[in-house]
Amino acid sequence: KLLLLHKKVEFYELVENLHISESTLFSDLSSIRKRLLSHNLMLIQKNGELRIDGTENNVRKMISELIYQEAREGLLNLNMLDQTFPDYKVLELRKVIIEEIAQFDLVTNDYNIINIILHFCIILDRIKYSSSIDDMLYVSKEEENEEDLQYQVTRKIVKKLSSILLMPFEK
């Protein structure tokens, strides 16, 4: 998860932080490479540093999959998101999302709200730690339909979160 959330990680820093031997990390990296390949991502090891190479969209999908995998034993909930993404106000994100959805007279359930929060947390973390905003928020002309209700709600959520988190991520 560290490799996905941050631009690069030092090999020996991982050994130290994970309390494992170098040989164990080399072995683990082999299985990580295989898993990354299934998402069209590559693990690059150069000058004692590790980084992941691939499209932003594929990285975000992999992060989401890892979090859901961790949650399989229990339900993905606000506490888990708060622990995984401590830099963000998960309850505040929830409040904004619910308020904006309600303004459009839309109805959803807790599972969908948590899923939306998860994806916003991933985007915020990726912006904070590694990726350019242009890679993050690319919307094709086919997807950018200003009359679409989902598009309108998303734009309002993004605008409100930008001001609350003091993190401009609106194009």
Give an overview of the whole structure.
The protein is built from 9 helices and 3 strands; from the N terminus they run H-E-H-H-E-E-H-H-H-H-H-H. It is mainly alpha-helical and 171 residues long. It has a 3-stranded antiparallel sheet with strand order 1-3-2. Strand 2 (42-46) and strand 3 (49-53) form a beta hairpin. Helix 6 crosses helix 7 and helix 6 (90-103) packs antiparallel against helix 9. The longest helix is centred in the last third of the chain and has 20 residues, at 110-129.
* Gross geometry: elongated
Biggest sheet architecture: 3 strands, antiparallel
**Oligomeric category:** single chain
User: Number of DSSP strands?
Assistant: 3
- The level of helicity is 55-70%
Report the mean per-residue pLDDT as an integer: 80
- Fraction in beta strands: 5-15%
Number of helical elements = 9
Unreliable segments of 5+ consecutive residues:
none
Integer-rounded radius of gyration = 18 Å
The N- to C-terminal Cα distance equals: 27 Å
Structural class: mainly alpha
Could you give the order of the helices and strands? HEHHEEHHHHHH
What order do the strands of the largest sheet run in, or round the barrel if closed? 1-3-2
Q: Can you describe this structure in just a few lines?
A:
The chain is mainly α and 171 residues long. It has helices spanning 2-5, 11-18, 22-37, 56-71, 78-84, 90-103, 110-129, 133-136, 149-165; strands at residues 9-10, 42-46, 49-53.
